[in-house]
Amino acid sequence: MSDTCTFCKILRSELPASFVYQDNDISAFLDIHPINRGHTLIVPNVHFEFFDQIPSQVFAKMTNTAQEIQRAFAKAGIIAEGSNVFLSNGEIAGQEVPHAHLHITPRYRGDGHRMVFSGTDPDPVARLELNQISKSISSALKQMDWMPPRLEGARVLLRPIVELTATNDS
Ligand SMILES: [Zn+2]
Fold first, then answer.
1. Which structural domain range is residue 81 located in?
2. Residue 34 has pLDDT above 50, yes or no
3. Is-catalytic flag, 101?
4. How far is the CA of 108 from the centre of ligand 1 (A)?
5. Which residue, of 38, 60, 102, 114, has the fewest CB within 10 Å?
6. Is residue 169 part of a domain?
């Protein structure tokens, strides 16, 4: 918990919020500046500034809840022909509250919004360069001795995936 963080204050009931869902690990409440009606923020109950600091199980719960909220929109009378599910990580990426949060924003035809980075399509990158970048990231992942988490729920069991062998750089 942080003394000054807006979301921590909401979680301590020091600031008002309109909650959609809450359990021991995560909370979901409406964005006070919604892009569209039903725009929801999903946060870990413990203060983490960046999403890669959130324990995997808790982050999995956040994404799972985003799926469930998407399914609930229609029943709730929220217009959501589609949605943008996104997370802005760090101030440079547009993160406005330093408490990691996942957005789920209903979208519909004619809502007047666009998700853009620059307004123009970035130039395509040559395959050779893409392969070099993917190789750098994948070997960094290997050096980190990282294993995808094993997620177990009442109805699901997600095992770690088998490592993908790179075959596209020949
Ligand atoms: Zn916080």
1. 1-109+125-164
2. yes
3. yes
4. 31
5. 114
6. no
